[in-house]
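Complex record, three chains
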Amino acid sequence: MEGKFEPLVLAFCCNYCPSCSADLAGSAKMQYPSNIRIIKVPCIGTVGTIHILKALENGADGVCLMGCLEGKCEYSSGNYRARKRVQYVKNLLGKLSIEKERLEIYNISAAEARKFCEIAREVTETVRSLGPIPLKIDNSKI
Amino acid sequence: MIVGQQKDFEEIKKMISSYNRILVLGCQTCVAVSFAGGMREVEILASMIRMDRKMAGQDIEIIEDATLRQCDFEFIDSVENLVDDCDVVLSLACGVGVQALAERYPDKVILPGLNTSFMGLTEKMGVWSERCAGCGNCILDKTGGLCPIARCSKGLLNGPCGGSMDGKCEISSDVDCVWQLIIDRLRALNQLEKLEEIFPIKDWDVSGHGGTRKIIREDLTA
Amino acid sequence: MFSKVGSVLVIGGGIAGIQACLDLADSGYFVYLIEKSAFIGGKTAQLDKTYPVNDCPFCIRSDMHMECISHTNIEILTLSEVKDIKGSSGDFEATIIQHPRYVDIDKCTNCGLCAEKCPEEVNSEFNEDLGKRKAVYIDYPEALPSSFVIDRKNCLHFTEEGCNVCKEACIEKAIDFDQKEQNISLNVGSIIFAAGFDSIIPPYYDYDKLPNVITSMEFERINSLNGPYDSHLVRPSDKKEPSNIAWLQCIGSRDIYHNYCSSVCCMYAIKQATLARQSNKMLNATIFFMDMRVCGKDHERYYNRAKDEDNIRFVRSKVHNVFPVPGTDDLLIRYADEHGNIYEEIYNMVVLSLGLEPSHDAVKLARDLGISLDKNNFVETSSFTPVNTSIPGIYVCGAFNAPKDISESIAEASAAACASSLNTVSKAALHEPLEDTGQKPVPAGLTIGGGVTGMVSSLCLADQGYKAYLVEKTDKLGGHALKLRKTFKGEDVKSYVKELIDKVENHPLIDVCLNSEVKHTNGYAGNFSTRIAISTSAETREINHGATIISTGADFLRTNEYLYGKNPRVLNWFHTDKILSEEPNTIEKANTWVFILCVGSREPERPYCSKICCSNALRNALELKKLNPDMEIYVLYRDMRTYGLIEDLYTEARDKGIIFIRYKLDSKPEVEQEQDGELMVRVQDNLLGEDLIIQPDFVTLQTAIIPRNNENLAKLFNVPVDQDGFLKEAHKKFKPVEFTAKGIYLAGLVHYPKPIDETISQAQAAAAKAVTLLSKECISINTEAASIDLKLCVACLTCARICPASALIINGMGKPYIEPQKCFGCGICAVECPVKAISLEHFKNEPILAESKAILVDASLMSDRVC
């Protein structure tokens, strides 16, 4: 099958600011790549190592976490925890020889619909340039 | 509490390379508390193994489970079906658990996923440190409640060595000289005279140097 | 069915009106909200972001709008005006005219087909005439009520007869041209004016002729995400990105027609400049100002950041003229600096920072009703009853009371809700969740701190029938107010405090605990248990209460600058107050008096404004001048921050010959003691550029208001402390008296320095919030709380260590227990639990994993990915 590679990126969005900015982007009819699929979570600190790994295992080419601005976490330090966790998982990816750039975390405020779109584009392009995630077995079996 | 640390992924990969049906079995007690072998880590390791195999284009089946304690046969018995069903067991318990499994399931290959590190405590979330060496002959009453066997790099029993500098051990400026701590604490407790007692040469027999240790309480055995 | 007699009428559906409605409705009162436009939200809805956090008010704001629209205790009448009000407190008869919307709110689905087809295009008021809308329109897609409206003035059906395009386009048949104007009569117990402000139409700088001279609200729209230019920062004339913008401050404020400061313009101009620089990093942003009045919480820091990090240029000058530059759309600004040198600069765009005028319609109505207005047409109120108008039963909040920002308006709205509820007799049916604990909240409030704030909150609670415990550390009530003489309006503080103490001590429902301190507290919103220790005895007391209000106040700085504590004639503000009330001879004999402002405030180690010093100094200076007209009085200041109506004092002080000398932080005045013991003050006069020597009899230092040691208190109640050491509220803009933790509120100086009127309105607001909780029929279950499977739990303590709400405790059985009323439901414990024993009902691990998998499988099937 020949064709253009369209990456698939799973975005975990904190239900506070980042989800707001995503909704705002939608209501302001701003464009962002459809490659980004959003899962809303109560706080970005609740995204565990396992959630990130499973997303990649199940066929996402990239994963990004969107948390509230530094110091603005509704639960005091969820976004800080998430940032440290992303570092940890990047390490694990390194051990698997999977590019660390497939995983990234961003801080975004509720109003930044434009930034949300920019991030969405940036992430999509990064992952596009990396190509499909090198898992050679079809996922549907698992 | 027994503190463990997961083995490097490369090492685990090599151990399991010839198996295609693996039971990753966690232990929900000590090593879970030190974030090395609880159900949380079982899921993460299983996911990594699967991804690794997929990258190599190979199929693998992983069963994920954990027992409350792997150091008790009764708990191990509850996973008998799972053990029977797999090619190999990758145990995320401490060395005791791994051996208990091996003893209970003599026909099965049991692999260790952890290095059993030490007996210690949680200093704070994510930081563990050693406190006891299990020497079999406790002297904490004489040393202000701080153990020189476990915590002095040389295991000295009669005061610090010449490498103690500004309260730190000569092996690293991050490591406290336990003898400094002992002296400080005894001074605070007004028990400095305890230091005048000379420790005789320690009997290491009860520390394992006399062979595998075993305790039998006749009143409890049936 | 309950009787609606004795419900509350709120006039104005802006942020203040909405907040007042919500507090009343949540406390079980029925409210009518009268809004003259077709949508609620008011001016706040037009704002892009809000200072000082730069976050978008969008989510919180829309939550508030949504709650207001859907509340069973609130009836909203849009397109409505109050025609007349008769009767008296407890029994008003209000006549309302409701204009037709011509669209059936219940049928309209907000699809927009009508507007798409409508042939008539006119300027959009929501976008300040910069964009277009149709004759059938909605302000912005999320506006509420979620229904289009037909603007009769422009609709061709009415102007040219017969156009039915929208009606034919509407699938839901929601358009109804036959709707008629309605006369509605409402019987209410009390009335809250939350009519807000109108922007001044700028009479200067050829605003009407020059397209690139715009108002601040126009800028707000241009820079908004849902603005007219698709959120691109471009100028109106040619839609090009400006490379430099000037903001001109005090337009329609502090002039001969408006002898007041509009309070909000400095901050919003900084905000606009900061945001403009964010969208165009190369932009030159210059703010021309007279005094930089950034007095609120975190405002000074915001200003410093703009100045030092965002490279916004601040020029202290009142701009003379704005001229068009021939052949371009640019503008030439001519201004003089402090030394009188004239400069000319060219800008692509000029923003006029417009002041606030009280809503013109509301002024007319208030006059008709006989409500006293001040000379600027703001409602006249006393500092001690900041939300009461001259007519009993009629209250005021927000910018119609005095120019103020969102957070102050919100606090005032809650205060007005609290005050008005005392006149209303009936309670509406309470809306309760289906699931409940069957447990009633303990009908008592605990207030910590027996200053004015604490006493006012306790009285509010007690007057509404709740038991009020008032815990005071010292042996008497009153706090700092005991040492204060007068408010900035000249009212006598002493007699007010005396009367207040009297009321508190004699109220049957108030239990005053003197010499007492809180030692321990636990429980949850609706049911707290707090242990207090009494210092005069070995006793402790256990108090059971439903809500907690923290009002422990603040302290003043004991400075070591300016010979304070070394020379007896270097005074603090309360020494000066004392001399004024007790030593007329001293004043008569004094020839010269110097006031030094910003002592310890706005310094690198204390980067905030203490807010009350300017007004206090001027009030005292004027009193001194009155008692001894020959006295020479010097006020050494950095920025004269007589915000809002306090500007009056500044004008009066200058009229009376008080001399103002501005000094800079890097060249502070020096106070020396000469050999003969006389004081000497040396200050660099900015205008003359040389040192001025003053030999005063007295020097008064307006020392900073500093936080008390709030760390212990914060730990005890598990509430946060901000970077300056004051307590940190849930949201700087929208939740000024609440904490993230439920059932605990704050008011007064423990939050930030503020004058007595703001303190009192915060105290009332905190009480109003407490009542919304105490009035509940039952404590609702926190359905978001996490739960632990104790069969799996190994008591590793991880959850208890990381819980941001401190909702996890280890019980006597050695197992963790989640206090459901405390749990935020964030799920951080669930993800960290090493044995996976914790789950969240609304956020289970498996569904999330399943969702992610479903999305991925779904997506990979749809896309033609190359694998």
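Note: Chain A touches chain C through 49 residues (CB under 8 Å).
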